[in-house]
User: Fold this.
Amino acid sequence: MHTKILLKEAEMPTHWYNVVADMPNPPPPPLGPDGQPAPPEALAAIFPEGLIEQEVSTERWIPIPDEVREILRLWRPSPLFRAHRLEKALGTPAKIYYKNEAVSPVGSHKPNTAVVQAYFNKQVGIKRLVTETGAGQWGCALALAGEFFGLDVRVFMVRVSYEQKPYRRSMMKVWGAEVFASPTDMTESGRKILEKDPDSPGSLGIAISEAVEQAIDSDDTNYALGSVLNHVLLHQTIVGQEAMKQMAMVGDYPDKIIACCGGGSNFGGIAFPFIADKAAGKDVQLIAVEPTSCPTLTKGSYTYDFGDASGLTPMLKMYTLGHDFMPPSIHAGGLRYHGESPLVSQLCHEGIIDAVAIPQIETFQAGILFARTEGLVPAPESTHAIAATIREAKQCTETGESKTLLFNLSGHGHFDMSSYDRYLAGELEDYDYPEEAIKESLAHLPDF
Assistant:
């Protein structure tokens, strides 16, 4: 029986897969402040032309530059594992596979797009990239990519994660990045938040506002985003493409594909390549997993909203909890975003993918079981996918069906051990975001 399914470097994908080509309906356009469709050139103040072209492309296959593939070879192709020991512990007839994106230098899937974004910005002479980060995986990825291409990197890290994840900010600094706890007094966006709440724990929406503001104000600085936008999810599709090849190597195909979902890059990366098969009639279920404390897909509203807290970005058609939504300080910091990728949102709205929300304690229970059976301590974000997979495996036990389950292990939890300490000490609790609070936040959606 196979445990590790490995591809050779020569088998790494040469093109990214663009899911837009196989969607039944074209994506709704971003809107400007006047409520009219924003032209692609509206993004030129913060993104290079190469990424803007990818953002609006409808081509099915987009070539990966050779210089990018050369760097990706440092950790790609990533291994696919058959989780035999987890299957045995669950006593399930299900077959469980996981794609291990923790093998990158950063320990997550985020460098798959960070390297690309740094490459295209370097091509047009940009000197500095500025960004936000939640739990820190994205900030680390961009810091590494900036070092590879000789770019300065500034990171606004959500304050609660800045305090919870000190070693991730240390990693960013090792790779030469500046790191600031957001909200800061360095930007107008940050100062406004601090005036209202000097002890604000921050949010990804606030940190995005601070980063975008600085990118707009400087000609030699661009903004880089670790999730949500089309071009970011595009870059991650090498994950799903590799997984398809690896499953074929052992003569298997997933019945269900599962990944955690905050902004959508991790889910889109493994799930999108299978949508082409689904469009062709293949029976495969794609499940996005989010926390009950930040239930964007499961309780949000599918409408136009800003991608940041201050309304500096174009408005995107997406599932949202409201751009000024303030999520609770859960330990899966990468899943604390108020909105969702427009592509993931549209696919969910049209019933092509499914979404489920899982409470925090169940995710940590799943992470502990996975660590004790498979040996790898998963990131708190990844435990959501593991928890959903365990639910599906237990369902197979009840029905006696042998389903094939594939999930994306988006990263390891080596810098999240304080979270596990709190779980083991019984200090964590479940939190279902109140319906009334969601209604209040959604009341502040753009009016145009």
Remarks:
- The mean pLDDT is 92.
- The radius of gyration is 20 Å.
